[in-house]
Hints:
This protein is of the alpha+beta class.
Amino acid sequence: MEQQSLPVLIQRHSAQSISSPSSTMVHHEIEPRRVSRVVNHVQYDSHAQSRLHEVFLIAVIACSILTLISLFQLNPTDNHGWAFFLNRCFGALRYLMPFYLLYFGSSFYAHWKNEFQSMQLLVLKLLGASTFYLSMDAIFGSGRLGFSINQSFFESHNCIESWVIVISLLIASLFLMTNLSCFEIALFVRDFAAQTFSKRKAAYYPIENTYRSEQASSRYNNREDANLITYQQPFSHPHIHDPQSNQLIGCLAHFGIHAVVSSKTPGPIITRFELHLAPGTKSSSICRHHKEIARSLCVQEVRVIEVIAGKSCIGIEIPNAHREIFSFSDLKDELENCREKLPLLLGRTTTGESKIVDLHTMPHLLVAGSTQSGKTNLLQSIIMSLTSQLPSENLKLILIDPKCVAFSKWRDIPHLLMPVITDGNEAIQSLNWCVSEMDRRYQSMATGNQKFPAIVVIIDEIADLISNHKNEIETAVQRLAQKARQSDIHLILATQRPTADIIVGHIKTNITTRIALSVPSRMDSRNIIDEGGAETLLGQGDMLFKSNDRFSERLHAAFVSDDEISNHVLNLRADEDDREVNSPTSNIRFIDFKNNNDKQPIPQTQDLLYEMAVAYVKEIKKASTTSLQNHFKIGYQKASGIIDRLEAEGLIGKLNKNNEPREVFV
């Protein structure tokens, strides 16, 4: 009955745990290795079996303690009992029996806990313990059993041969009981003998004294000749031990890479481990296996930093199990104390510190990343940073959104210089207007020290504009990127197609500050920031920020919700209504290229230029803004006004879809 009731109770316990989701979840968190198995149509719960194993271990410990107590309480007159039996068989070695029982129980318990340990290993351990006990008994000849074995070996055989056999059994039993290895012992003896008796240097890689003498062996630092080559001792750096570091080191060891973790820096999204590699180990060996390392650690991606500025180690960035989500409002207080002229709150660093940069010193920015990489969310954070710190009289925005969805919530802010642009032709006009405004500002600055409000042009998808209007867009962007720095006109270009035909050479040359979000390939990462690494990012705002310096920095963008944007726009409009805006330093006003309400009647002083333009279009039989600019050496604004006047008077046709020169009717 007792043997039948135990499986039934275990079966009921497992059924209850399966029928209750909450209890199953709790047990899963506490015992992640808990598995049920079916034997002879009876379901056994490993959780209950582990409790039985613990009960067995407790019983063995109790038996060992009771055996030890009974041996100490044994009287010479006793002629029965467990202690008397041990005394007759083993004599003075009877006191080793409690320890033998402890080893016996702990070996069984360790075998049950380790699913990968075979039964053969358990048998070998118990055989080694028994052999060790009997060998010791044979050597000392204590007790009836020891005396019999001693007499058998040392009386009937040659004494030297018997000692060789017994000592060999004793050593073999020690190897069976423990994890010792003959090869490891031989290596230890060899190294110890080399350090003790050898007079030559150890065979480590050479390092010049003038370069890193502080890491050389102290016994070679006192040589009189300073030009001698010393040798660095391996793993002389301090290292740390914790479960994560040990797991990483063990994973690298599987690929034949030996290293130690010198420091660990946890962050909101990832944790950076700094490792010192063994002498002669190349960092490229880790880069080649970064996919296998990520799979072994059960993480999405692993980023390897081959060079860390000012340090002789490499870095490995591993994603955290739980990603911390922070909003723009959580970091907004950092903007209040910043001194940047055009502050951009990009997010947090890998250590959790806020990252604020100045667009005025960049002076342009390129943002690139694939779909779902967080590019649009980063642009929203940039707009919120600028508009929250600068009033509309000091900042003007031009938002170009070919996708018609990214900047739709910003159409009512007072900082807009013109409505949100969604058409390619309007985008060309706005960029050409910026070029004309840049030239006008330089002319004004040549005559006097005049200040102008900052103009920031943000293009959400420049690849769409370049594919439809390649020459016009690239020409305007190139002129602004080359010359607009001192005129306080800045570009922020974003694209989700970071190919070589979109991010062309003159854009990379003139826009040195770039942000790479998650991309699918290493080639795309090189197109953006001239180095790999963006292909290992996690997405959702995880990025690499590279400015004028050589090394890139990993950042995490803040999440900007729709409610945050709506509330921010309402606050901007309320502040604008309460303040009377007066900007005497600039003639910039609201411009609407779609309705052409920015075009003023041409004064009478320009009638001569208009008549010359009419004669010119009659001669060449075509009319375009570019041809008038090149022929009369005038700006885009004047040429566009003449074209519009010619169209209004019926002298030329309307602009066609292919953006070709207009037809002349006179």
